[in-house]
Amino acid sequence: MPRDATDTDDMNLAVNMGGLPMKNPVTVASGTFGYGQEYNQYFDITRLGAVTTKSLSLKVRAGNKPPRLVETPAGLLNAIGLQNVGIETYLSEKAPFLRKQGATIIGNIYGHSPDEYVELASRLEQESAADAIEANLSCPNVHDAKTASGAVLVSQDPDAIIEYTKAIRSATTLPLFIKLSPNVADIQEPALAVQEGGADGVCLINTLLGMSINPKTRRPRLSNIVGGLSGPAIRPVAVKMVWDAARVLSIPIIGTGGICTANDAIEFLLAGATAVSVGSMTFRQPDAPMQVLDGIKTYLKQHRIERVEELIGAMEV
Amino acid sequence: MTGGPGARFLSDCEVLANDEVAPEQWRMRLRAPSIAAEAKPGQFCMMLTNPTQYPFLRRPMCFEQIFDQEVTILYKVEGEGTALMAGTPPGQRIQVQGPLGIGFDTDDDAFARHIIVAGGIGVASFPSLAKALTARGVIPEVIIAARHAHLILCEDFFRELGCEVHVATDDGSLGEQAFACDVLTRLKPDSDTRVYACGPMIMMKTTSDAAIAAGANCVVSLEAQMACGDGACLGCVVESTEEAEGEAMVRVCVDGPVFDTTRIDWAAHNLAYAP
Ligand SMILES: Cc1cc2nc3c(=O)[nH]c(=O)nc-3n(C[C@H](O)[C@H](O)[C@H](O)COP(=O)(O)OP(=O)(O)OC[C@H]3O[C@@H](n4cnc5c(N)ncnc54)[C@H](O)[C@@H]3O)c2cc1C
Ligand SMILES: Cc1cc2nc3c(=O)[nH]c(=O)nc-3n(C[C@H](O)[C@H](O)[C@H](O)COP(=O)(O)O)c2cc1C
Ligand code: FES
C-alpha cells in the first residue's frame, strides 16, 4: 500500500474515544514516540488517529541513572524514570510543532499528587496544547508518588484512583483517560475506579514489572534494578486485561501492549478496545504505526467491513 | 524520504558482501545510496538483524567507510543479533536507518596534531575519520589496542593512508604489551593535540584521563544500549557534567555518540554495568 494512501476510502476508520474524535483508531504509546517530531521524517504523523506525548511533569525531570534499557526475549525492560522536558518547555517548544502539523494530541501527564495532575491538565487545556488528557497513574519506574494506603502505584489503589480521577476531572473539560498498571490481581477493580471517578476512558496497559540479572557480573542489568517490560512478550497479557475490563466498563479503552502488526491491533479491538497504541514496535520499525494503520484498512477491505467500530468487542466465542 | 538538514532515511539496503575478516569479526558492504550521501564519519545506523521478532531491537552500528553509493560496517559477533548479521548472505536486503547522531568534527583546524585511539572493535569508527582528515592534509597518528592479536583490525588501512600506527595488545601477542592510554601518554599529546577515542567504556575513560592530564583536547565515541536510535525513548543516556536538571543526562544517539569528553561525567558513570 502506498505510504500516502488517503485514509478516507470507502470504509470508515473513525472512532469516538470517550469524546475525542479520532480519524482512525491508531495512536502511539506514551514514551515511545517522544513528542512526535522525532518521527515526522519517517511518516506524516498527522495520519495518526492521535499523537500521544511522553509523560509530562510540572518540572523537568532527569530520570533514572543509566543503564535504563535491557533487551529481553521478544521485548525490553526499561527504567527511564520519566525523564521529560517539563510542561513549560512542552508548551513553548513541542506543542507548537504538533499544532502546526495539525496532529490530534493526547497529552500524557504525570504528577506527585492530585494537585500536580490538576495543574498539568489545566495548563494543557488553557494553552490548547492537547485534545485529550491521559493521566499516567502507573509508571513503575518512579518511587515518588505516594498514596495514603502505601501502595507503590496510585494505579494499584482503587480509592486513590477515584481521588486522583475526580480531581483531574473537575479541572478539565477535555476527554480524560487514565492509564493503568497491569501489576494488579484483578484489572476490573482499578478500571471500575476510573469509571467511578468520572474519566472518559481507560488506557491499558502500562509496562509489567520485571528484572534481569547479569550472571557474569552478578549485577542487575538496570541501575534501577527493576523495570517495566514491554513489547510482543506482554501482548497476550494486555489483550486479556482489555477483555476483562471491557466486560465491566461502559467507557472506552485504548489498548496497548506489544502491538506490532495490524492483526495485533485487531486482536485488541476484538477484545473490546476502541483505539490502540503502537509502542515498542516503533523502536524496531520507525513507521510501524503507519503499517498497522494500512494493515487495518486492508483487513477491513478483505473482510468487507465498512466501519472499524464494528470490530470493537466483536470476538466470537 | 528526506527531512531537510540532517536527513535520516529508513531504507532496505542490499547486502553486497559480508565476509569474516578475522575470527568472529566481519565486514558487511551495503548498497545504501541515500544514507551514504548524508553520512559523516562517526555517525551510525540502526540495523534490523532479522525478519522475525527475535531479537526484538535493532543493533547500532557505525559506518566504517562511506563511499559514493555504499557503506561498510565492521562488526564483531558478540551475541545473537550480530550472529544473525553474520549469517546474512549477499543479495539479501536488510533494513537500515541512518545516518544517525553527531559524528566527528573533521573540519576543525584548531589542532596541529590528531591522535586516534581505537580499542577493540571501536576501531570501526575510524577509517572514515582518517580518510576525511587525510583528505584535507591532516595525517592522524593511530593507536590500535585490543586484548589479543587477532582483534587488531585495520592496521594496513591506516598505514596505506600514511598514518603512523602503534599496535598494542593486553597480552603482548602483537605489537607492544600495553594499554591504549599508556601508549597515548608516551606519544606526549599536548594542548595542540586532539585525541579521538572509541572502544569499551573503561578504555575510553582511561584514554580520556590520559589526554586531559596531558592538556590535550579529547573526543570520545560512546556506546550505550539503544532502543530507538532517534532521541525518543531516552534509554541511551549517560550522565553529563551539566548542572541543570534538564541537561543532567545526554542521549548517546542524538547528542552523540561523539562527545567532547569534558561533557561526560565519568565519575558518575558506573562502569560495572557494561554489557
Ligand atoms: C553508536 C554505536 C555504534 C556501534 N558501532 C559498532 C560497530 O561499528 N561494530 C560493532 O561490532 N559494534 C558496534 N557497536 C556495538 C554493537 O551495537 C553491539 O556489539 C551489538 O549491539 C551486540 O549485539 P548482539 O545481539 O550481538 O549482542 P547481545 O549481547 O546479544 O546483545 C544484547 C543486547 O545488548 C546490546 N549490546 C550488547 N553489547 C553492546 C554494546 N557494546 N553497545 C551497545 N549495545 C550493546 C545489544 O544491542 C542488545 O540489545 C556500536 C554501538 C553503538 C552504541
Ligand atoms: C522506553 C519506554 C518509555 C515509556 N514511557 C512512558 C511514559 O512516559 N508514560 C507512560 O504512560 N507510559 C510509558 N511507557 C509505557 C508505554 O506507553 C506502553 O504502555 C507500554 O510500553 C506497553 O506497550 P508496548 O508493548 O507496545 O510498548 C513507556 C514504555 C517504554 C518502552
Ligand atoms: S536510543 Fe532512544 S533516545 Fe537514544
Task: Describe this entry's structure for a reader.
Chain A is an alpha/beta fold and 317 residues long. Chain A has a single domain, classed as TIM Barrel, CATH 3.20.20. Chain A has 8 helices and 16 strands. Chain A has helices at 87-101, 114-126, 158-171, 188-197, 235-248, 262-271, 281-284, 288-302; strands at residues 15-17, 20-22, 26-28, 51-52, 69-72, 75-78, 105-109, 132-136, 176-179, 201-204, 208-211, 213-214, 219-220, 226-230, 253-256, 275-278. In chain A, the strands form 4 sheets. Chain A has an 8-stranded parallel beta sheet. Chain A has a 4-stranded antiparallel beta sheet with strand order 5-6-14-11, with no helix packed on it. Chain A has a two-stranded antiparallel sheet with strand order 1-2. In chain A, strand 12 and strand 13 form a beta hairpin. The model of chain A is unreliable at 1-5 (pLDDT under 50). Chain B folds into 3 domains: 2-102, Elongation Factor Tu (Ef-tu), domain 3 (Beta Barrel); 104-221, Rossmann fold, CATH 3.40.50.80; 224-268, Dihydroorotate dehydrogenase, electron transfer subunit (Dihydroorotate dehydrogenase B (pyrk subunit), domain 3, Ribbon). Chain B is globular and about 50 Å long. The model of chain B is unreliable at 1-5 (pLDDT under 50). Chains A and B meet through strand 5, strand 6 and helix 7 of A and strand 14 of B. The structure holds flavin-adenine dinucleotide, flavin mononucleotide (FMN) and FE2/S2 (inorganic) cluster (FES). The site of flavin mononucleotide has 24 residues of chain A, from loops.
